[in-house]
Amino acid sequence: MPAIRTVRRTPAPAEPAGPRLDHAVAFRFSAADRDPAPGDPQPYVDHLRALHRAAGTPDPTVELDWLTGGARVSYHDMVRVVVERLGADLAGVDLVVTVDASPDCRHQSFPACLLAAALPGDPLVLGISEQGVAGPFTALRLAHDQLRAGLRRRALVLVVEQSTLPPGSFAGRVEDVAVALLLDAGPGPGPRLERPEVGITGRGAEAAPPTPDAPPGHPCAGAWLTLADRRAGPGGWPYGPDGRLVIADRDPVLPYACRVTLTRPAPARQPGVLPEVAVRPVLEPVA
Hints:
Elements: E1 3-7, E2 16-17, E3 20-28, H1 42-55, H2 65-68, H3 75-86, E4 95-100, H4 111-118, E5 124-129, H5 134-148, E6 154-161, E7 177-184, E8 188-189, E9 197-201, H6 222-232, E10 244-250, E11 256-263, E12 278-285
Helix pairs in contact: 3-4
């Protein structure tokens, strides 16, 4: 999990807030969530072999214990559980963006298509894969632009990670997890940035302390798991005193430093009503 730290930033003028983030929900899966008949793994094996032949790298499918004896909780299984648990919170979603850091161990299905089929209407479906840490930031930028332009009303960004991976795929432990981020198109005024912000930093971000609070093992979901866990805790959304929250990370392979600013509009919300969080994602090349 990434660390949460306090950072100071230069005061900035107030800006109109854009789309708001009203849900951040973490899901952790076990073998009990797996499809009892997950299907033939051979298409996945054939796909991996073709990829490694094309890249000239060693074949990871010589030994298949990691696949046949693994958890095999697929993105298909995760989508089913997410839809069941979120239920009515998915009402009105007309944009779906899924994010994963690796191919699904269930090669026969695609999570974005399954989500689209489970939702009413005809949502626009996008999928982002193999962008590592940058994937969720890219997804938020796409959702933000669609909502702000008035092309969509409500978006679901679903970040998924699975533990059934070829040996050497990622350093450290990887769990079967998902994070659902739900965004609305509602506007709101942004407050001035006058006090220290609270920041959530992934392990790749500069100055992220390598402490036990920030272990490796989440190729793209780490910062978002932290956000969802803090949001679900007794303190609610982990804003700073200025009503802003900055999430930042840097991919260890791709040349991107990423950050997103979540802004709570200045007017107080009514008790029992979900707070609004405006989203301003930035994806910056690293010099």
